[in-house]
Amino acid sequence: MNLLVHNDSFQVFFYSHATSCFQFYPPIFSWKVFNTNSLQHYRQTMSSSFTPMDKLCWRTGNKYCCRVATQWNKNSRDTRMRQSTKNRKIYWQCRSTQVSVEEEQQQQSSVCTLQFKNVGLQVGKVPIIRDINFSLFEGEILCLLGPSGSGKSTILRIAAGLTRPTEGFVYYQGKELHGINEGAAIVFQNFALFPWLTVSENVELGIRGAKSKIQRKAKAEKAIDMIGLDGYENAYPKELSGGMRQRVGFARAIAVEPELLCMDEPFSALDVLTGENLKSELLRLWQAGEIPTKSILIVTHSIEEAVGLADRIIILGKDPGHIRSLLRIPLSHPRDRKSRSFQNLIDHVYTLLSRPDATCLSESIPVVVSKKQKSTFLVSSSARLVSQESSKYPTLPSVRIGSVAGLLSFFGDERCIDLYRLGQRLQLDVDDLYPLLEAGVILNILKVTEGDVMLTDQGSRFSVASIDDKKSMVREALLQSEGARLIQQIYWLLRQTKRVHRVPEELILDTILEKYFSPSESRRQLEVAIEWGRYAELFGYDAPSGELFLDEEDPQQEE
Ligand SMILES: Nc1ncnc2c1ncn2[C@@H]1O[C@H](COP(=O)(O)OP(=O)(O)OP(=O)(O)O)[C@@H](O)[C@H]1O
Predict the structure, then answer these.
(1) 475 close to ligand 1 (CB < 6 Angstrom)
(2) 208: left (phi over 0), alpha (psi -120 to 50) or beta
(3) Do 314 and 332 fall within a single domain?
(4) Using alpha carbons only, how large is the chain's radius of gyration in Å?
């Protein structure tokens, strides 16, 4: 029997099959999963508190119900627990070796810091994100992970109240959020410091609610101390290294004493060692409770960072940004990156990210809980695959065909490589690898399956083909692939245009792209389409006139 318990302020009884008794368990301070072994352990150590079953507990269907003991912290804001105490009973759903994410969320729901309900954002006619639903709980680090353009920063800005959604509701501490979220602070990727202000002045700037200048200064000093910047109070940003500048960014956020700390790729502008150092220091402050922050929402491109930091990861898809998957990371800190469970999770997240055709909510992941427990359980029992609603034109990945061809050389004699290893071999982050794979799939030279990337037969031929043959293979794939509909549409348009077979790019932007993409994304899509179309010799581009034209040697060109 496994039980999932959140219990920092009161006591719970566990049912023991072995003794047919419910057993008292003392307060604990975090979410924990107990398996039969740990129950057995407590049965031995707490034998004096055995109580006959029918006095304290009963069973309804597959739910075990038991009365809650009286150590109740009246100051707690946990309304579900308060209600449970009032009714003097609490329900724990027990199943052999499984605890689902949904159950966990239900049980946690009363300590929710932030909640998104059906949140969407549309700018003009362009949908940026849609149907975003999630909750962030106290004591939790939640990571937003997804390809570029999937709306990670947009969600973060909405959480901080900097952007207002056009659909749905955002609740902070149970109240609907209107305007700036006073309980939140943001750490930006590019530090966002004022160069003309000193470290102290930058940190003091955001402090709200301080009664006097002295009080504000004291708060800033405390944050500067905490984040290891003492001695640099009077320095200007230009005197500091990247790592030190980001420390100022953190100090500025911490000085506000935010309950919700939002971070937008805070380590990505730093070199690896500096980033790792800052990350582990932040984690230490958070775990030791030295910062008043209750919940952390972090945007990252790095799978390893997400699995290394997060309690849960939201995986986003794009066109428009939507939630594809929600995963719990059931590993305790400090996390051993070389452990099998850590590597399993990384593989799993890689697989999810590289399967853009599927939406997967509540995914099963076999993971080893910890070395000590040595028990494997499923994070969630049900895997549900829903095909992604296709947008009018699938987004073309922003890569050059030459780079995709270059990727094939890393296969050597192998036909199949583990995705994560491929990323490591190429020293590419998922955000750089993902578009290359997408392009490979569109061109029918790669196939991505569970955690692996494979060369197709076409891919094997492509890797040894002459340049002309490569071009004709790409041409064939672009005219057939569902993912290249934009290129097919442009090609068709050019062929329909009598005699001159020329079309101004503005026409393509206005009539095709800007209906479905933001202006900047439309421009990017056009650039990719031109690059791919040129490579395949489907059409050309005349920069001075800004016109696309049909290639003169197009065999299908009308006379
Ligand atoms: N105000 C806006 N007007 C038009 N388009 C916007 C606006 N805000 C965001 N977008 C577009 O919405 C998409 C999502 O942007 P966002 O920055 O949230 O994505 P992201 O996942 O954080 O991307 P990245 O990882 O590249 O930072 C992008 O294509 C962006 O161009």
Answers:
(1) no
(2) beta
(3) yes
(4) 27
